[in-house]
């Protein structure tokens, strides 16, 4: 049986610091999953569309396959979010990150639907917006690999202005590998080392 005793000021600060660190590590572990889920799903769909266009001779309608991205990734992300033991613990940083992804995600959805009705460089715009969201999320969470990979995604997205379809789809997938998959694996590995 534990005795109730008063903690010294130093012990209190150490306990609070340790609890904050444990919460951040646990949350960060589950924050890597959405990056990996959305990144890998985007890459797979990009490859399927590119293959359909180049090898199977599919017409522009194959682009409807992009709508499979949120259908697959959203439930998978929610599933791993529910597995997070600290999911009820939300702080200011979590809310800001949610606002960032909600805003950028909504804009991308509107642009994606609009692209079926008016010509636009949709792959460039989506890659640029998602890279910006990634960079901002990295800045808010103070995770440098996410910031660096997000900035790399911003720079690489401009390549899409100079490459024509269907090869731009491969570059689009590669950008998601750089901005989401790489930092997702770095974050996941870092958390495994701490556990």
UniProtKB/TrEMBL annotation:
Domain of life of the organism encoding this protein: Bacteria
Transmembrane segments: 35-53, 59-79, 99-116, 122-139, 146-163, 169-187
Keyword terms: Membrane, Transmembrane, Transmembrane helix
Protein name per its UniProtKB record: Uncharacterized protein
Species this protein is from: Parabacteroides faecalis
Taxon lineage: Bacteria, Pseudomonadati, Bacteroidota, Bacteroidia, Bacteroidales
